[in-house]
Amino acid sequence: QQQVKQSPQSLIVQKGGISIINCAYENTAFDYFPWYQQFPGKGPALLIAIRPDVSEKKEGRFTISFNKSAKQFSLHIMDSQPGDSATYFCAARSSSNTGKLIFGQGTTLQVKP
Amino acid sequence: DGGITQSPKYLFRKEGQNVTLSCEQNLNHDAMYWYRQDPGQGLRLIYYSQIVNDFQKGDIAEGYSVSREKKESFPLTVTSAQKNPTAFYLCASNAIAGAKNIQYFGAGTRLSVL
């Protein structure tokens, strides 16, 4: 119930291609879904986030698609660049009172030049 | 600069030794968290605190201890009872009030066993 399942575990994309990372959850009480980007040896940084009453959110080359009925959401990186090579985590907020997040397992993205 | 400071960046533990990882934030955030990161396992919650002098166990609290004596500080002690402490440890914080509750992370401490 409290899990967030993320796939794939790793992803290799050519420069200019589209990177797609998927997440699924069970708990319908989750109310906020952020994505974090982490470079090696660094802490994760918030990339983009969405609420369940919105089906899509776009910020530059990054888009979240949200399917409430299927309890799935995904991150799309358009025109992927080598600088996008990082580990990406999806997350779900379990309570707006605390901000506590449940994280997916992470996806390591490599964008080849 | 506002943010979360973790120290040290690298730490080595000897057999049977307790070590303490520091986490300080100047964001005036109420809640603070400790995560452990292992390859392929994402971020696993060790402990969290929503208010001074109070904290709760996360999913993998065994072998760890914390304190929250000041709002800005949330140190994590890795005790000798933690038999596999080698990992990357991340501290995070967020404001409880408000709709976003965005968690901000420190740069992490990498702990290795000698």
Could you please describe the fold and organization of this structure?
The complex is a heterodimer of chains A (113) and B (114). Chain A is built from no helices and eleven strands. Chain A has 113 residues and is mostly beta strands. In chain A, strands 2, 4, 5, 9, 10 and 11 form a six-stranded mixed beta sheet that branches. In chain A, a hairpin with a 7-residue loop joins strand 9 and strand 10. The N and C termini of chain A lie far apart (40 Å). The mean pLDDT of chain A is 93. By secondary structure, chain B is mostly beta strands. Chain B is built from no helices and eleven strands. In chain B, strands 2, 4, 5, 6, 9, 10 and 11 form a seven-stranded mixed beta sheet that branches. In chain B, strand 4 and strand 5 form a beta hairpin. The mean pLDDT of chain B is 91. Chains A and B meet through strand 5 of A and strand 4, strand 5, strand 9 and strand 10 of B.
SSE topology sketch:
The complex is a heterodimer of chains A (113) and B (114).
Chain A: E1 4-7, E2 10-14, E3 19-25, E4 33-38, E5 45-50, E6 56-59, E7 62-67, E8 72-77, E9 86-93, E10 101-103, E11 107-112
Parallel strand pairs in A: 2-11
Antiparallel strand pairs in A: 1-3, 3-8, 4-5, 4-9, 6-7, 7-8, 9-10, 9-11
Chain B: E1 4-7, E2 10-13, E3 19-25, E4 31-37, E5 43-51, E6 54-57, E7 64-66, E8 76-78, E9 87-94, E10 104-105, E11 109-113
Parallel strand pairs in B: 2-11
Antiparallel strand pairs in B: 1-3, 3-8, 4-5, 4-9, 5-6, 7-8, 9-10, 9-11
Task: Enumerate the spans of chain A where pLDDT stays under 50 for 5 or more consecutive residues.
Answer: none
Structural class of chain A: mainly beta
DSSP E strands of chain A, number? 11
Continuous helix count of chain A: 0
The SS-based structural class of chain B is: mainly beta
* Span of the ends, CA to CA of chain A: 40 Å
Number of helices of chain B: 0
Shape, per Cα inertia axes of chain B: globular
SSE string of chain B: EEEEEEEEEEE
- The termini of chain B sit apart by 34 Å
Strand content of chain A: over 45%
Radius of gyration of chain A: 13 Å
Envelope shape of chain A: globular
- Give me the oligomer status: heterodimer
Biggest beta-sheet profile of chain B:
7 strands, mixed
Strand content of chain B: over 45%
The chain pair forming the largest interface, with residue counts per chain, is:
A-B, 24 and 28 residues
